[in-house]
Specification:
CATH topology of the domain at 317-483: Rossmann fold
Helix content: 10-25%
Distance between the termini: 40 Å
Amino acid sequence: MSILSPVMLWFLALIPALLLLHLLKPKPKQMEVANLFLWQELLKERGGNITFKRLTNNLPLWLQILIILLLSLALTQPVWTRLAQQRGDVIVIMDISASMNVKTQTGTRFELAQQQAADLIDRLDSRQNVMVIAAGYDAAVASAWTDDHAAAKQAIRDLKATDAPARLEQSLFLAASFLHPNQDDTMHLFTDGADRKLRELVSAYPQLTLALISGGEKNLGITKFEFRQSFAAANQYEIMAAVKNFSAAPLSAPLRLFIDRKQVFETSVALEAGEEDVVIAPYSGVMSGIAKIELDVDDDFDADNRAYLALNATKDLWVLLASKGNFFIERLLEAYPNILVTRLEAIEPATWQEQVRRHDIAIVDRMNIPETTSGNLLLIEAYSPSIPIRKTGEVEFPIVTNWDRHSPLLANADPRNTRIEQASVVESDPSAQAVIESPETPLMMSYDGNGLRAVFLGFDIERSDLPIKVAFPVIMSNLLNWLNPQKLTASTLYATAGTPFPIYLSPDTTEFATRIPGGKSVKHAVTASPFLFTDTNQVGIYDIIEGGKTRYFTVNLVNEDESNIIPPPYDFSNQPRAAASVETAPTQQPLWMWLVMAALLTLMGEWFSWLKVG
């Protein structure tokens, strides 16, 4: 046994003070008596040291001394050091991927995993801490370290499997960061083995114990769903769907296509084990609304039996053209049937921001514009205090020597050999990115930040041969699409489950709302456009509510690893595993509470003694 605060032994100095207090007695009172022989006989019987005998026969005094002794020892924080079993803490990692929704004879795989995880926690020592991590597309701590095992089990019960794949590598990395370096902590992963990297992940973490959840073998799933425009006519489309049999036996099912809840196509697919078929069907009409393809099959996995597409037809694109005249730009804009142009020959600073707000894109040709807080701008030798690009000089006949081949502004376009009579020499902040460069100056730059998206051309296109090159309409189309996507061409708006979806918003939008499948609506403050929406863990149709209008995008699984519900056989018998034995280590057991309880019992005894004497 040892004490942690020996300085507290100074409280034992109260014992002499207590003795002194008991030695003090009242001054004797003189009384006249007839004879002293009786008192003399009494003194002979008791002896001469009356004071000492009075102390030794004083039971309350001894009890009070014992109380001081016990409390002084308690204040020193005595501990008893002994060898005790040392158990590490436990991290429970729950796979919440789509394949965990596979139905088995006794419930879904995830329900079985929840039960096994709860059984594991029930077997733990009450002193072991538990953490719960949800392993989805993104890793998240569902329950921090706690010794409240009931709370940890409740956190596991509150988890739900998603329709998205899981990235187990991220989850295991997160879990490993919480392991205590000097303890025998362990990680327990409850998964069905759909992640094909599982074998190497298990070998990378010797602290990991794997619990494989099996059950459910029948699945026919949609692995691809796309629309594409036909080359024959503008309103002709082809629908393509890929269906695969992930079962060990042949399966067949009807395949139906609906557009805005109206069935437009039906066929039947019959596939052998492991076989895949691609179905292509023609479609004529307006490309708008919600397309849904569905397999009418009773299998063990529902998430891949249907897929959705939000069909987005071309929309009117309002362009504000501030120019004193530019033949090539005007002719190009007229070639787009859905581009509506508002022309300005002069800029009024007082109304400029409002005019930009009312248009999808503003093209400014050789005019300086006032400060602009938001909008999509194409600046042709035009400058604004809001765009960090400044003119410092001019250069004659600059030569294109470098360009960003990965920029969407130059997709399918080659700007080399472009002849330019004169260009502005500019300097810029790092936030403005050079797209086309000459040795003297950037010739095209892009800027995206603070509510502004802009493309800067540092030369007058009428004093170059760019308008007569094949690349000109391609580059201009790229510019317009980058400044305001999803309006020039028909498209399908969807994301794969778990991946962020970019939502493009009007420049004047400060707040909008989304509604996930099932009716839950959430408001969002606009911080940037596009706004990256990340809550895409559920397959279905999502609403975007902006300015009182609603549009849609969809989320699909289309993931063969998740649809392949029969994982490959795993044999981890030869993998190094964490030691299962329980080690012993010195443990300090505090004793102060026992001493305080003994002091309280002694105090009660002293009180009873006082009552008896009284």
